[in-house]
Amino acid sequence: MADKQISLPAKLINGGIAGLIGVTCVFPIDLAKTRLQNQQNGQRMYTSMSDCLIKTIRSEGYFGMYRGAAVNLTLVTPEKAIKLAANDFFRHQLSKDGQKLTLLKEMLAGCGAGTCQVIVTTPMEMLKIQLQDAGRIAAQRKILAAQGGTQASVEAPAAPRPTATQLTRELLRSRGIAGLYKGLGATLLRDVPFSIVYFPLFANLNQLGRPASEEKSPFYVSFLAGCVAGSAAAVAVNPCDVVKTRLQSLQRGVHEDTYSGFLDCARKILRHEGPSAFLKGAYCRALVIAPLFGIAQVVYFLGIAESLLGLLQGPQA
Ligand SMILES: *[C@@H]1O[C@H](CO)[C@@H](O)[C@H](O)[C@H]1NC(C)=O
């Protein structure tokens, strides 16, 4: 996907624009994913993605589906910047005298970039998850209170709605930097294997549609290959994503398990909810990732940043 001739600022602008459009289009599905992954057996509020979205609109309004989107909108560009810069750095280190990278080295560079990106991704996910899941917990309390008789109803005031900034301050105050980096290990365990699945799959699928061995694949082939490879990789690492979401959620619903770490969480999920629980939200995640990758490729393909930069520089002689 990465073309050598495109400058880093142009890549950055492309990445930022793609990120902003992407978040706007698929954030509600991302919210449904978080809520579906967090619900444990017993107190299930939502039966499916559409059920979750309908209930969210009913109780929280249309903007309720976008709770936490500000985190993504603000941080998606710095996140992309780190990833692109790291990817360029590793590719440069790995390439001998400007030759084309082998697939293995491409993968290595991708994994290295993924590892650096986690510096921004982890706190981002941490904040996003609290904001996305708050509505589910509030709704669950309300239902229990309406059924009457639980202690929860006694101390169930209107749920507080902290902003991302307030959450950050509170986390830093109570737990320091580590508070923002809860789930770092789980995030790495999700994102590094993601690259390991994505890169070879994309390369192979992309190859299938190449007319002659020397030519580049046509755009629609790369586009489809990106969407398919992205979704497949997302589903493959979904078990880690479920564990990550659970570990990063600070608030629990009524009667929900708490976890002390990655293994404890994986074990409890397996024991109390069965192996299929590791696929919770997988469908949503595939639906989030495919458009994100697709949109990014279209933005790159159209060269939106290059046109913008060209406009700034004025007509070329
Ligand atoms: C929001 O950002 C997180 C962290 O990078 C990412 O995993 C998630 O897919 C993003 N969601 C959307 C809808 O872009």
Automatic annotation (TrEMBL):
GO terms for molecular function: amino acid:proton symporter activity; L-aspartate transmembrane transporter activity; L-glutamate transmembrane transporter activity. One of its GO terms (biological process) is malate-aspartate shuttle. It comes from Prolemur simus. Belongs to the mitochondrial carrier (TC 2.A.29) family. This is Mitochondrial glutamate carrier 1. PANTHER family: MITOCHONDRIAL 2-OXODICARBOXYLATE CARRIER 1-RELATED (PTHR45678), MITOCHONDRIAL GLUTAMATE CARRIER 1 (PTHR45678:SF3). One of its GO terms (cellular component) is mitochondrial inner membrane. InterPro entries: MCP (IPR002067), MCP_dom_sf (IPR023395), MCP_transmembrane (IPR018108), Mito_Solute_Carrier (IPR051028). It catalyses: L-glutamate(in) + H(+)(in) = L-glutamate(out) + H(+)(out). It is a multi-pass membrane protein. Keywords: Membrane, Mitochondrion, Mitochondrion inner membrane, Repeat, Transmembrane, Transmembrane helix, Transport. Its main location: mitochondrion. Mitochondrial glutamate/H(+) symporter. Responsible for the transport of glutamate from the cytosol into the mitochondrial matrix with the concomitant import of a proton. Plays a role in the control of glucose-stimulated insulin secretion. It is found in: Mitochondrion inner membrane. Solcar repeats lie at residues 6-93, 101-208, 217-306. The chain crosses the membrane at residues 12-32. Gene3D superfamilies: Mitochondrial carrier domain.
